[in-house]
Amino acid sequence: MRVLVATLALGLLTLGTCTASAQGSEADTLFRKGREAADRGDYETACARFGESLRLDPATGTLLNLGDCEEHRGHLATALHYYQSAIGRLSLNDDRLPIVRERIASLRSRAPRVYIRVDTKAPSSTTVTLDGADVALSKLGEALEVDAGPHTIVVDATGFGENRYGFEAHPGQTQEVMVAPGDPVGGSVEPPVATPKGTPTPPESEEPSHGQRTLGFVVAGVGAVGLVVGTITGAMAIGKESTRKDNCDANDVCNQTGYDAAQSGKTLAGISTYAFVVGAAGITAGLFLVLTSPSHDNGPSADRVLGRPSRSEASGRTLLAPLMLPSGGGLTLKHTF
């Protein structure tokens, strides 16, 4: 490390310029004082001197010396920032380029990283700062290099309170911090939902007629499908029977084609019969459910006012339930009058 620092110092000092201007002269003086402090191991003073020199004259050599100084202080992310700022100014034949590249690679592997992720429910006006510096929206969710030590994240948004998050960073450590703005200011953020003009307010209670009617249409639809399946399979069974007759003699002795057709015909005939039964039952049950569903009244009926049961109340209830039979299954309808 001492040889590396000496190499850097030798190369950087040769870049020191003494301009005729007073500002350049002051920057050069501060730079030399910074080098003297760094040689003594007083990196606190050295970094301060280099920083003032950089403010007066942003020279490449000052950036590299600041990177070396901050690295000695343990501020790895800050040192990485200075090295990255300087490397773009170095030419490809600059002797310092390989050394700076090596420093950058080393710091990237050792600098602490943090991922700042904002709650998905946070409003679009959310802003995030890290140690007082704004974090761009494009950087949220990406790895950010930070110096080792304590850090503070502040999250704010329009109409919300401020939230502060503290975390401790350690060399080589990567961590994730989930953030969100504070509580809403002045109560609930979302206003109450108003009923649009011209939209009637739904009644508090409604007679359950739509459910029965919908069930009726569904059951009738199943029945219709059953009839279609029965028709198709029946036609296929007739075709198989024709094939059987063509390949069997009068004594019902058949070749392989006739035998296969006979077996397939029996299966298709059974399916057709079952499908017709289910289809007919479904159509009947569906129509019954639709026709017996109670109707709705927009207001109190005369029967209800007089104390008599309404038509929907008098119609009772209709129930559809499965029915298990020895030869299969089906549906059963129960209606209470």
Features:
337 residues, alpha+beta, Serine Threonine Protein Phosphatase 5, Tetratricopeptide repeat, Immunoglobulin-like, 3 domains, four-stranded antiparallel sheet, three-stranded mixed sheet, 10 helices, 49% helix, elongated
Q: How much of the sequence is in beta strands?
A: 15-25%
Work out the helicity level: 40-55%
The figure for the number of domains is 3
Sheet with most strands: strand arrangement = 3-2-5-6
Give the number of helices.
10
Q: Mean pLDDT, nearest integer?
A: 78
Major sheet attributes: 4 strands, antiparallel
Order of helices and strands, N to C? HHHHHHEEEEEEEHHHHEE
Q: Per the principal axes of the C-alpha atoms, what is the gross shape?
A: elongated
Helix/strand structural class = alpha+beta
Number of strands: 9
Low-confidence parts: 1-20, 188-207, 296-315
Distance between the termini: 99 Å
Gyration radius (Cα, Å) is 43 Å
Show the helix and strand layout.
Elements: H1 2-13, H2 22-39, H3 43-56, H4 60-72, H5 76-87, H6 97-110, E1 113-118, E2 127-130, E3 133-134, E4 143-145, E5 149-156, E6 163-169, E7 174-179, H7 210-246, H8 256-291, H9 302-305, H10 311-314, E8 318-325, E9 328-335
Parallel strand pairs: 1-7
Antiparallel strand pairs: 1-4, 2-3, 2-5, 5-6, 8-9
Helix pairs in contact: 1-4, 2-3, 3-4, 4-5, 5-6, 7-8
Write up what this structure looks like.
The chain is of the alpha+beta class and 337 residues long. It folds into three domains: 2-110, Serine Threonine Protein Phosphatase 5, Tetratricopeptide repeat; 113-179, Carboxypeptidase-like, regulatory domain (Immunoglobulin-like, Sandwich), CATH 2.60.40; 210-335, no CATH class. It has ten helices and nine strands. The chain has helices at 2-13, 22-39, 43-56, 60-72, 76-87, 97-110, 210-246, 256-291, 302-305, 311-314; strands at residues 113-118, 127-130, 133-134, 143-145, 149-156, 163-169, 174-179, 318-325, 328-335. The strands form three sheets. Strands 3-2-5-6 form a four-stranded antiparallel sheet, with no helix packed on it. Strands 4-1-7 form a three-stranded mixed sheet, with no helix packed on it. Strands 8-9 form a two-stranded antiparallel ribbon. Helix 3 (43-56) runs antiparallel to helix 4. The longest helix is centred in the last third of the chain and has 37 residues, at 210-246. It is elongated, with a radius of gyration of 43 Å. The termini are far apart.
